[in-house]
Amino acid sequence: MTRFLTAAVFCLLPFLASAQVAPPGAESCGGCHGVPGTALPALSQLKSDQIAIAMADFRKGAREATVMDRIAKGFSEPETEAIAKWLAAREHRP
Amino acid sequence: MTVSINRRKAIAGIAASTTTLFAPAVLAQTKPRVIVIGGGFGGASCARALHAGGMAVTLIEADARYVACPFSNLVIHGSRDIGLQTFGYEGLRKSGIDIVIGRATTVDTDRKNVGLADGKTLAYDRLVLAPGIDIRFDALPGYSEAAQEIMPHAWKAGTQTLRLRRQLEAMDDGGTVIMSIPANPYRCPPGPYERASLIAHYLKTSKPKSKLIVLDAKDTFSKQRLFQNAWKEMYDGILEYVPLASGGKTTEVIPAEMTVVTEFARHKGAVVNVIPPQRAGAIAAAAGVADRSGWCPINPVTLESQLKPSVHVIGDASIAGAMPKSAFAANAQAKHCAAAVVALLGGETSPSPKLINTCYSIVAPDYGISVAGVYQPANGILADVPNSGGASPVNASAAFRAQEAAYADAWFTTITAYAFGNA
Predict the structure, then answer these.
(1) What's the number of domains chain A is made of?
(2) How far is A56 from chain B (nearest CA, A)?
(3) Prediction ipTM score
(4) What is the CATH number for A26?
């Protein structure tokens, strides 16, 4: 019975974790950014502020870019801040 | 005595079997069952995200190995090994996803089950279809399953890719290569033009007396200025582009004569690459989620079929509004689809998505260009977010183009690791 309960709780845990739904757009970032050591920065190695500032600069054209200026323009400041926070929180996951 | 021991044993036996039989049944109720059909970029990514979201996931895929289309034009170019395009499902299996290698042939959306070619039936609470494309062998007179052996499409990567590569290698210097490109919609909008570029590069460097004629059933295409500028700059006299307005639309192919017939002319080639019209993978029609166009209309918030309940369609098979049929789009849709499925099965409303696409094309070695977009639901479709996205700048340095080529490579590493890797 204990074993069964443990199993049931284990099953529910990821379900609960997923209640923290990614803010709109956040999960698309992983299409390019994810594997450390490639030509693209792994966002898990950046802090939330770094991501938010970079996105703001890309949006304003204040930072040199190939594609990120075009993508950043699709997001508002609050949206990118939410994304940055969520991405930074992910890095603390085991 | 003996009787009583036997009885005890019997009772213990029943208790044990009740535990083993009963427990999984209860667990099955705890974990909703989601079936994903199709193990490409969309399906594999969605299976991963659903599993991370606590679902019991079964991925049904016809082939044990997946050969990726992005970068397969470099295999045709001769600069990339097809092994780098080939992936298995061991990583997904190890993570706890049930992998079924077999062909799904029927979907009963009333009883909520999927029938396999081997007769087995699997039940689901929600179904995700990511079947990619099928070639329409009924759409272009003369093109057939037999014709694809002679005039390969190479629009599903694998043996077709290698066939086209070998034909180019075997061609004499001075031969004519013909490409036939269909009208929209089809998988990977800039793909034919990337392929034209890379075939032209191969001819220029290895068979300089040869020529490539590109016959197109349309007048405008993705990243057009970037491609055409590059062609003028690098492949002038090698690549001849014939748009719809100049009679570029293929009306018939004659494999026995290696001939492509257009509205205005007949073109004979030593190598003929026909990219035929396409539709959603066959299971979409079998499930009743494809409309008369052959593609699948979806709700832009939940990515659920507009035709059948509890069935979601992602990737190339779906009608995703402004989003192109690309691996990046399929991966982005997959992750959002998983979030929608988890929410809906938990009795909640689906979050509303914002999705990104980025498509790189390689025009020559160290010469990459891109188109990007950001999308959100508007007016019932996934629409472009105003004032965002677009193609690479027309005037850019060689270093810029080289950087985009390097980013394309990094993208491929990351997205295939997400979809198929062990991480």
Answers:
(1) 1
(2) 14
(3) 0.90
(4) 1.10.760.10
